[in-house]
Amino acid sequence: MKAKTQRRKFKLNTRAEDARIRAGIKSDPDTREITAKDFAEMRPFSEVVKRGRPKSDVHKEPVTIRLNPEVVAFFRDSGPGWQTRVNDALLAYVSRQRRARA
Protein backbone atom coordinates (compact mmCIF):
# COMPACT_ATOMS: atom_id res chain seq x y z
CA MET A 1 0.00 0.00 0.00
CA LYS A 2 1.22 3.48 -0.82
CA ALA A 3 1.57 5.88 2.10
CA LYS A 4 -0.54 9.02 1.88
CA THR A 5 1.35 12.25 1.74
CA GLN A 6 -0.13 15.41 3.14
CA ARG A 7 0.02 18.45 0.96
CA ARG A 8 -0.63 21.92 2.17
CA LYS A 9 -3.37 23.78 0.40
CA PHE A 10 -1.67 27.08 1.04
CA LYS A 11 1.88 28.34 1.04
CA LEU A 12 3.41 29.32 4.40
CA ASN A 13 5.04 32.71 4.79
CA THR A 14 8.79 32.86 4.73
CA ARG A 15 10.59 34.20 7.80
CA ALA A 16 11.20 37.49 5.97
CA GLU A 17 7.52 37.84 5.05
CA ASP A 18 6.49 37.00 8.60
CA ALA A 19 8.90 39.62 9.96
CA ARG A 20 7.46 42.28 7.62
CA ILE A 21 3.93 41.40 8.72
CA ARG A 22 4.85 41.63 12.40
CA ALA A 23 6.63 44.95 11.82
CA GLY A 24 3.51 46.27 10.08
CA ILE A 25 1.34 45.21 13.01
CA LYS A 26 3.67 46.94 15.50
CA SER A 27 3.75 50.16 13.47
CA ASP A 28 -0.06 50.46 13.23
CA PRO A 29 -1.50 52.09 16.39
CA ASP A 30 -4.97 50.67 15.69
CA THR A 31 -3.80 47.06 15.39
CA ARG A 32 -2.20 44.68 17.84
CA GLU A 33 -1.61 40.98 18.17
CA ILE A 34 -4.14 39.07 20.25
CA THR A 35 -2.65 37.77 23.49
CA ALA A 36 -3.48 34.62 25.46
CA LYS A 37 -5.36 36.85 27.92
CA ASP A 38 -7.45 38.25 25.04
CA PHE A 39 -8.32 34.72 23.92
CA ALA A 40 -9.30 33.74 27.48
CA GLU A 41 -11.68 36.73 27.69
CA MET A 42 -13.34 36.06 24.33
CA ARG A 43 -16.95 34.89 24.25
CA PRO A 44 -18.99 33.50 21.36
CA PHE A 45 -20.84 36.15 19.38
CA SER A 46 -24.18 34.58 20.33
CA GLU A 47 -23.45 35.23 24.02
CA VAL A 48 -22.50 38.86 23.46
CA VAL A 49 -25.19 39.94 21.00
CA LYS A 50 -28.73 38.66 21.16
CA ARG A 51 -30.30 38.50 17.72
CA GLY A 52 -33.91 38.96 16.79
CA ARG A 53 -36.73 40.59 18.64
CA PRO A 54 -36.70 40.80 22.40
CA LYS A 55 -39.02 38.37 24.15
CA SER A 56 -42.40 39.90 24.95
CA ASP A 57 -43.71 39.96 28.50
CA VAL A 58 -47.13 38.98 27.14
CA HIS A 59 -47.33 35.99 24.84
CA LYS A 60 -49.84 36.72 22.08
CA GLU A 61 -52.08 33.91 21.00
CA PRO A 62 -52.23 33.25 17.25
CA VAL A 63 -55.83 33.11 16.02
CA THR A 64 -57.72 33.16 12.75
CA ILE A 65 -60.38 35.85 12.55
CA ARG A 66 -62.64 36.97 9.73
CA LEU A 67 -62.91 40.73 9.33
CA ASN A 68 -64.73 42.91 6.84
CA PRO A 69 -62.49 43.90 3.91
CA GLU A 70 -62.84 47.63 4.69
CA VAL A 71 -61.60 47.04 8.26
CA VAL A 72 -58.54 45.14 7.03
CA ALA A 73 -57.90 47.74 4.29
CA PHE A 74 -58.13 50.59 6.81
CA PHE A 75 -55.49 49.09 9.10
CA ARG A 76 -53.24 47.77 6.30
CA ASP A 77 -53.23 51.17 4.60
CA SER A 78 -51.78 52.66 7.79
CA GLY A 79 -48.53 50.82 7.08
CA PRO A 80 -46.33 48.27 8.86
CA GLY A 81 -47.51 47.26 12.31
CA TRP A 82 -51.15 47.20 11.29
CA GLN A 83 -51.84 43.97 13.18
CA THR A 84 -50.53 45.55 16.37
CA ARG A 85 -52.88 48.49 15.81
CA VAL A 86 -55.80 46.07 15.37
CA ASN A 87 -54.77 44.45 18.66
CA ASP A 88 -54.57 47.88 20.36
CA ALA A 89 -58.02 48.84 19.07
CA LEU A 90 -59.48 45.58 20.40
CA LEU A 91 -57.73 46.08 23.76
CA ALA A 92 -59.24 49.58 24.02
CA TYR A 93 -62.69 48.11 23.28
CA VAL A 94 -62.24 45.40 25.94
CA SER A 95 -61.12 48.02 28.47
CA ARG A 96 -64.18 50.20 27.78
CA GLN A 97 -66.49 47.19 28.07
CA ARG A 98 -64.98 46.16 31.41
CA ARG A 99 -65.38 49.69 32.81
CA ALA A 100 -69.00 49.79 31.63
CA ARG A 101 -69.76 46.51 33.40
CA ALA A 102 -68.15 47.57 36.68
Compact summary:
50% of the residues lie in helices and 0% in strands.
> Which percent band covers the strand fraction?
under 5%
Q: Number of helix segments?
A: 5
SSE string? HHHHH
Instruction: Please describe the biggest sheet, giving its number of strands, its sense, and whether it closes into a barrel.
Output: none
Instruction: Give the beta-strand count.
Output: 0
Query: C-alpha Rg, in Å?
Result: 31 Å
Shape: elongated
Low-confidence stretches: none
Q: Helix share of residues?
A: 40-55%
Please provide a written account of the structure.
The protein contains five helices and no strands. With 102 residues, the chain is mainly α.
List keywords for this structure.
102 residues, 0% strand, mainly alpha, elongated
Blueprint of the fold:
Blueprint lengths: L14 H13 L8 H6 L3 H4 L20 H8 L5 H20 L1
